[in-house]
Amino acid sequence: MRKILAVIIIVCLAFGIFLLYLDKTNDNGVSTQFEDANAVGTIDFDKIYALHEPDEVIGTLNGRNITWDEYFYAYYTYAKDTQQYIDQLKQYYGLDVGWDDVIDEGTGETFASGVASYPERFLSQYAAIEQYASDNGITIEAADEEELANLLKSNIVSLCGEGATEEDFYKQLEELRMPRSFYNRMMQDTVLNDKLNLVYGANGEKLSDKEAIAMLDEAGYLHAGHILLMTMDKTTGEAVDENTAKALKEKAQGFSDALNAIENKEERYAEFTKLAAENTEDSSIEYTFLPGSMVSEFEDTVKSLGEYEVSAPVETNYGYHVIIRLPLDPDAQLFEYQMNGQTVTGRYYCAMQLISEGLLEIYNNLKIEYNPDFVSPKIGRFINQG
Questions:
Q1: N or C, which terminus of the chain has less Cβ within 10 Å?
Q2: pLDDT at 28
Q3: What is the distance in angstroms between the CA of the first residue and the CA of the last residue of the chain?
Q4: pLDDT value at position 339?
Q5: Could you tell me which of 293, 281, 361 has the C-alpha nearest to residue 333?
Q6: Strands 222-230 and 319-325
Q7: Which helix (H) or strand (E) holds 104?
Q8: CB atoms within 10 A of CB 291
Q9: Contact 360/352 with Cβ under 8 angstroms?
Q10: Under 8 Å CB-to-CB from 34, ≥6 apart: which residues?
Q11: Mean pLDDT of 348-365
């Protein structure tokens, strides 16, 4: 289940999904904008790092002290990657770009301002996970120590290769400018993040049917079953002959007539299930899907039906479908994840959505309170002229 939201941590590091540009100034009035941002050359990160002592507290975030070395790690990582991206734009595409070029017309964000705001966004993301976990009684327990140990082993191999030691790993972290204490915090927050689904149960089972169905309905999900009689040869991909197609349509019409003759909805659905199991040529009998996921003829028909109403034969490129509209089922598998090889129910999806919304609400209210003597790095001042 972790892959679905892999979960929030992956989103946390990307930020592009839900974050607006934050045009912030420090408490001491020092703007996070840059001077001489279009200068060319390499960035002198050592000079930037020397602005403060590594363990100097530069401010607080949600009541927790923020040290310069963890702030600098986020700054350094993002600035380095951004510089590489700018260089690639110049080298491979011949674009004349610099740090003060706007990369988001909607927010006015530039390469430089993105670097300026990233450390706060980065650190706030972890603070949001910690706050959400604390609010909901989720903690690191003794049973989680094994997972933390496994994460360390996996990270050692990923970063340093097979046979590397912890000492090798931590030396590599130093080269990446990552404080060991912050690495430990990140891993603990990774474990916390994996446990957040416990708020609604491992599979969302604490979320009621009513709550899940309401959320699925609001999102626009549809639930339907069908019997498919294919008019396409599975081996060659070619259409069957006209007589065969006519016979298939008549057969589909017979299913439709038989089902519509059953007045009781439960009995009609039971008979549909039986007929579908015996006759459908699709791998799935039922689908819970979002608009735009299915061929238009299928989707439009589902929308036109009432619950448990059965359609006349509907022709698509695949063949003839006899479709039954079904009420939303929170425990049915969602089609978009099924296509990706994942098993995700509507109930689990809704639980993850609620967790994401809770994290975002916390995140949007977080802000670093900088100490008055904090010196904001301005990248234009630390570029060695080429």
A1: C
A2: 33
A3: 49
A4: 80
A5: 293
A6: antiparallel
A7: strand 102-104
A8: 13
A9: no
A10: 99, 100, 112, 113, 116, 378, 379, 380
A11: 96
Strand partners, 334: 288
C-alpha distances (whole Å) from 357 to each of 132, 207, 221, 280 are: 11, 15, 19, 40
pLDDT digits (tens, 9 = 90+) for 300-315: 999 999 999 999 999 9
Instruction: Give the closest residue to 297 by CA, choosing from 278, 323, 277.
Output: 323
Q: How many CA atoms lie within 13 A of 210 on its CB side?
A: 0
Q: What is the pLDDT of residue 385?
A: 57
Q: Give the pLDDT confidence of 220-229 residue by residue, as tens digits.
A: 999 999 999 9
Structural tokens at position 51 = 């602005």
- Token pair for 85: 């991206």
Backbone dihedral angles phi then psi of residue 326, each to the nearest 5 degrees: -120, 155
Tokens of 380: 């234009």
CA distances from 256 to 242, 272, 311, 329, 351 (A): 21, 9, 7, 23, 37
Full DSSP string of 88-126: HHHHHH-----TTSEEETTTTEEHHHHHHHHHHHHHHHH
Six token digits for residue 313: 């034969």
Task: Decide if 248 contacts 231 (C-beta within 8 A).
Answer: yes
Q: Give kind and range of the element (H or E) at residue 167.
A: helix 166-175
Residue 123 has pLDDT above 90, yes or no: yes
**Cβ count within 10 A of residue 51:** 15
Return the residue matching tokens 């957040």.
196
Q: How many whole angstroms separate alpha carbon 73 and alpha carbon 101? A: 24
298 class by beta-carbon count within 10 Å (0-12 exposed, 13-18 middle, 19+ buried): buried
Q: Residue 312 has what DSSP assignment?
A: P
Closest listed residue to residue 75, CA positions, set 40, 39, 49: 49
Tokens of 241: 């002959």
Cα 233 off chain centre by: 38
Helices 242-260 and 265-279 cross at an angle (nearest 10°) of: 150
Residue pair 287/330 in contact (Cβ under 8 Å)? The answer is no
Report field, pTM of the whole predicted structure over 0.90: no
58/89 Cα distance (integer angstroms): 34
Strand order in the sheet with 57-61: 64-67, 57-61, 368-370
